Amino acid sequence: MEKNNLNNIPKDLFVPLVRKEDTSEKISAPSRTFFQDAKRTLFSNKPAVFSMFLIALIIILSIVGPWMNNFGSDEQDLKRAKMPPRVPVLENISWLGLDGTLSGTFQGKDVNQATAKANARFAKKEFVDLEVINKGDGTLNSAEVKATYHIYDAKEMKDTYFWMGSDALGRDQWTRLWEGTQVSLIIAFVAAVLDLVIGVAYGGISGFYGGRVDNILQRIAEILVGIPNLVIILLMMLVLKPGIVSIVIALSITGWIGMSRIVRGEVLKLKNQEFVLASRTLGTSNGTIIRKHLVPNISGIIIINTMFSVPGAIFFEAFLSFIGLGIVPPDASLGSLIDLGFDNLRLYPYMLVFPAIIISVLMIAFNIVGDGLRDAFDPKMHK
User: Fold this and answer.
1) In the chain, helix, strand, coil percent, each to 5?
2) Do the domain assignments include residue 303?
């Protein structure tokens, strides 16, 4: 028998290929732009997407949160001062700590002494539940008693709910927390936008023109960056009253320098490339070259740097408010709420916990989104 004889294969199995000019180089897959690739890479980053969701949720709550209950941010009432958090439905889950009770552990040489300390701590002992943890052996502080104080019942506020508790003046913490978050976000975003505008313009002009212009602008930037931020904010306090305006100005005076240096370095790298030389040859003005050719090509690094500057501004505002140089009471910000909570940490920890959680989530989320954007605008990360 003949094997592997091609002449024995039926000819109807073969179909001739018809070559056409309009289909010979046709690309079957759709082409994507750089920004489409960046978008796909960003949204495939699950931590970055989740962080964007958290940021959006906090921004929405900072807007609608103060309107979700009937308490005003400056509505004071000493009768309801320092009330613990109490949330409908969740109050039945004791381990969440949202049941509206105050608790503490008291020690003494015997149970009676420990109980006396508990009763001295809370106003109405008939609303105190006692649990003996250790009966003791008669030595110093060997007995231990856990006391749970039903303060809402004691103050005849059974139908009142403070979702995040109240502060020392009886103001609702939920309302003040979201109004403070709103203030902190406004300061951060305004400072970031000013850093973006001033830094991109300054760095673009300095890098593009070079020579004497670059030398003069960089010496000015070096002088400004050598001035500590605290000195600037103190000077702002002398000229302007403490508040949002003075903090934003203090952040903006030197905050743009980092952005300008990054933009300057990128412009120096791009300004001698062929597409810029072609634009100059065609008579395009310098302003148009910077605006339409150079800035779009460095937009990725600009967006990333702006995203990283937001948490820095939030932290700086919180730091200033914490040391008493920021937002002035009765206005609230995350920093001022943390400062108030720190003063009452041992007895009323909830005053510190909630604003600390919000500022921590914001800082971490913005940094994760910044990392995601950095990977998204890196062509090496595109698949």
Assistant:
1) 60, 5, 30
2) yes
* Structural domain containing residue 96: 78-154
How is residue 40 written in tokens?
């796909």
| Sequence letter at residue 278 | A
Question: What is the predicted pLDDT for the residue at 30?
Answer: 62
Q: In total, how many domains does the chain have?
A: 2
Which helix (H) or strand (E) is 168 found in, with range? none
Paired residues of 105 in beta bridges = 146
344 phi and psi, to 5 degrees? Answer: -115, 25
Q: Do the beta carbons of residue 205 and residue 217 sit within 8 Å?
A: yes
Is this structure's pTM higher than 0.85? no
Residue with tokens 């400004």: 224
Q: What separation in angstroms does the CA of 266 have from each of 73, 182, 273?
A: 47, 34, 12
Handedness of CA 126, 130, 135, 136 (dihedral sign): negative
Eight-state DSSP code of residue 86:
B
Q: What is the pLDDT of residues 217-246, one digit of tens each?
A: 999 988 888 888 778 777 777 777 777 888
